[in-house]
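Re: your question about M48 family metalloprotease

S., sorry for the slow reply, the queue was backed up all week. Below is exactly what I fed in.
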Amino acid sequence: MSPMRSSGSWKTRLVIAAIIAFFAIASYYMSTDKNPVTGEAQRVAMTTDQEIALGLQAAPEMIAQHGGELPDRNAQALVDQIGGQLLQALNRDLAQQGRENPFPFEFHLLADPKTVNAFALPGGQVFVTAALFRDLETEGQLAGVLGHEMGHVLSRHGAQQMAKQNLTQGLVGAAGVAGGDANSARMAQLVGQFVNMKYGREDELESDQWGVRLMGMAGYDPNAMIGVMEVLERAGGEGPPEFLSTHPKPANRVIYIKQVIKEEYPNGVPAGLKP
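Result:
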């Protein structure tokens, strides 16, 4: 191939890559929506109605992956009761601010006896595994787990992550075209993953803040969140290095939780809250 033809091919790839990158960035910055709960302008990949529909559609698959729902009516009733208290407290608080929660939360206790975990799908489907549930020592700790997961939904972290992934995929595609080989695309993909990991860690801390707030509003002592971190620390053992994890290490989250509690209650946590 002549140098002139090679140069022309490189310029063509560069132009195509620039177009792909431009549309990816433009699409990301145009996908702005106002969070009905926080009032914050966010870049998200879907509407709240679409989030709810997505969560409802994905819930049966998630339940099946964890062995179904735990056939313990009393345990499920407790999860529903505490989740309901958090939801009622949230709705009361939002009503006072002239806002409304659009998410119809549902709380599921999964039968999985080995995976110590809790998670939420966009739109309000919240899950706790039996392995985590059995390790919790107080109702306040369960409230902390549920409040944290509700925070992911209320902050629309799933829709935000999807928007960021769409942007990343577009930029990765542009980089692959510009580089002209698979290695360039793989390297760009790796960089994109590290960028999204950072956002995931920030989401976890923001949800810890939600957990503290919702617990206090519902009458639970937010210090119970520290006990939750101790449970997770014991369950995780050494775990992967924090830099390679989407979740900050429990020990570091304890520091953040204590800071949030101090900010929320500058005069100290009120007496009489349930542990």
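Strands lie at 32-34, 41-43, 106-110, 118-121, 125-129. The first strand starts at residue 32 and ends at 34.

Happy to talk it through on Thursday.
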